[in-house]
């Protein structure tokens, strides 16, 4: 499997007329493993939501080579996921396969076995009947990774997947990310831990509402680029109008 390319063509995304991401152009290469880094409010989640189609561009476009957008595997920030829903762990994992069995389709024995294998792969054997509301944050994150494994998507987007997750679980989940990359999927993750990005993500998009750098992680996360991203963050205006040109060097 080689995931498709995702191209951003002069992409601007705004809330109430104020841009959170603007004039972003570039490509996530097929099969690439990319971190999206940047300060709080840099537009990272906004970009991810625009890629999955939850937000419409105010300008420009997100373009896919040969991909049905609904086939994207997407893990939103934990705070956005409803956990009070009365559903057990195994059924949550099986939701990853809804495209294969349809909303009202039956779940085959093979699919159930695949869901149980995915649970075993995230070290949650025997958790299938537990309600998801009873799990710890880290256990729930493992369930969501198992669901993505079952979804078998060519493109996977993860928004801060390791927040509130301990070191051992993070290591396990990073190993799954590495496996997805080795399988040729296109994987994109919003992350804050620069050390983790440098160790595990070959490419980085450094965002400060606009693109600061996008390429090999060592270069994109250079001290000069990080300084520039911080300097831009200090000058953000929450009420900036759309398409106001970047004025980073005006100060
Ligand atoms: N639903 C919304 N309505 C209005 N403004 C929003 C909305 N969501 C985000 N914003 C604003 O857009 C900007 C970018 O937010 P976004 O969540 O994309 O940043 P982020 O880089 O993911 O930040 P963090 O690291 O804090 O998660 C922020 O100024 C934020 O306040």
UniProtKB/TrEMBL annotation:
BP GO terms, sorted: zinc ion transport
Domain ABC transporter: 6-234
Family in the record: Belongs to the ABC transporter superfamily.
UniProt source species: Pleomorphomonas carboxyditropha
The keyword Nucleotidyltransferase belongs to this UniProt entry's keyword annotation: no
GO molecular-function terms, A-Z: ATP binding; ATP hydrolysis activity
Protein name: ABC transporter
Keyword Acetylation among record annotations: no
PROSITE patterns per the UniProt record, alphabetical: ABC_TRANSPORTER_1, ABC_TRANSPORTER_2
């Amino acid at each position: 499997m080689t995931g498709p390319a995702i191209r951003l063509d002069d992409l601007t995304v705004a809330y109430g007329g104020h841009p959170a991401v603007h004039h972003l152009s570039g490509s996530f290469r097929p099969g690439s493993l990319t971190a999206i880094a940047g300060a709080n409010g840099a537009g990272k989640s906004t970009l991810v939501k625009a890629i999955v189609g939850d937000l419409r561009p105010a300008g420009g476009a997100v373009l896919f080579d040969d991909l049905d957008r609904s086939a994207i595997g997407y893990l939103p920030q934990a705070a956005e996921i409803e956990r009070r829903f009365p559903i057990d762990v195994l059924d949550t994992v099986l939701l990853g396969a809804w495209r294969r069995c349809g909303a009202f389709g039956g779940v085959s024995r093979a699919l159930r076995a695949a869901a149980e294998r995915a649970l075993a792969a995230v070290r949650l054997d025997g958790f299938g009947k537990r309600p998801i509301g009873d799990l710890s944050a880290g256990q729930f994150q493992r369930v969501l990774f198992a669901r993505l494994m079952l979804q078998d998507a060519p493109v996977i987007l993860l928004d801060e997947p390791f927040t509130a997750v301990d070191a051992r679980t993070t290591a396990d989940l990073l190993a799954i990310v590495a496996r997805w990359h080795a399988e040729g999927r296109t994987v994109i993750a919003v992350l804050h831990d620069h050390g983790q990005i440098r160790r595990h993500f070959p490419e980085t998009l450094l965002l400060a509402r606009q693109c600061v750098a996008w390429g090999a992680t060592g270069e994109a996360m250079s001290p000069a680029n990080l300084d520039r991203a911080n300097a831009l963050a200090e000058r953000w205006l929450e009420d900036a109008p759309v398409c106001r040109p970047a004025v980073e060097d005006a100060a």
